[in-house]
Each structure stands twice: as C-alpha cells, then as structure tokens.
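Researcher: Excuse me, tokens okay?
***
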Amino acid sequence: MEPIRVIRSRTVVLPRENVDTDQIIPARFLKVTDKKGLGKVLFSDWRYGEGGAPRPDFVLNQPAAQGCRILVAGDNFGCGSSREHAPWALVDAGFQAVVSTTIADIFRNNSLKNGLVPVVVDAASHRALLDAPGAEIEVNLEARTISLPGGGAAPFPIDAFARYCLLNGVDELGYLLSQSAAIASFEQHR
C-alpha cells in the first residue's frame, strides 16, 4: 500500500442515500480473491445496461468522472453486508477517498485496511460538496481536514492507528512486522 498524506482531486458526486455494499459491488462478483479488475464492475447494476453497455447517464460513465479520486456520496454510504470487495472495487477504480455524512462501520473499517480514506463531514460541508460536482478539493490526512468548494475546510475524524497505517503505507500486519525487534526483545525478557 502506498502512503497517503494529501489527496488532491476533482470530485465525483453520487448523491444517493443508503448505498449498500451490494450496490457498490453486486454479490455475483464476489467469487474472486484478487483485487485487480474489480473497478470495472463497481456499481455494475447502475453503471451498465442490458448486454453490458455503459449507461451514459450514470456519473462514472461521464467524461468528467475520469481521473477523479474522491467520491462524494449520499448519507449512510457502505451500509449492508460485510464485503471487503466493496473498498477493493473503489480503490481499483482509482478512488482514494469517499466522503459522506455517515459511513457504515464495517465498510469504514474495511476501507481503512485497504487504502481508502473514509471522510465523514458535517451536513453543511457535505451539502457544499454535493452541490459542487467536479470541484477540485483536497483531503489532508495529516491535518484531518477536507477543503471545501469556495474556500474553507472541514475537519473529519479518523482512528489514530488507521491514520498512522495510511500515512506510512502499511497494513496491520506490516505494522506488526515492523515491530519484530521490540516483540522479540519483550518475549526474551518475559
């Protein structure tokens, strides 16, 4: 995993509320254990029509969405069943952050472990982001702030250990392995 400190990008706005993990990546795509390629089936049932043709009205199929790394979603994003494939698909599609007023606990935890920053903001900041699709903004993980269209910034909470891992580009196992000498010393003196 690459370290994440600051994410600067235009936004893609998906204002739908209560987007569950089955909408993010339908169950029929969960038969794989490899993360690669899941981005192409992200929001598959909304993104593609009969025969797999892209729906031109779906936001991710529009030219303005290309290259965006920040998804601004409606309230209660990532609810539903536990499925690590959901953040895998978002990351494989190029997203590094998801912004909402609430993000489901299991989805948030899976995101943090897979290099996707879940950003929870207050309602007014969220409204400003929803109302400005394509805005160039910044998610600053070091400062725990997100810039807002038109100026200003909003703070967002993030677990301290998860933040450390994201800033340093390590997962939980990588962190434990980096502490091998201290663990060995502890065990030797126990």
About this structure: Residues 39 and 93 are 4 Å apart (CA to CA). The radius of gyration is 18 Å. The first strand starts at residue 6 and ends at 14. The first helix runs from residue 21 to 24.
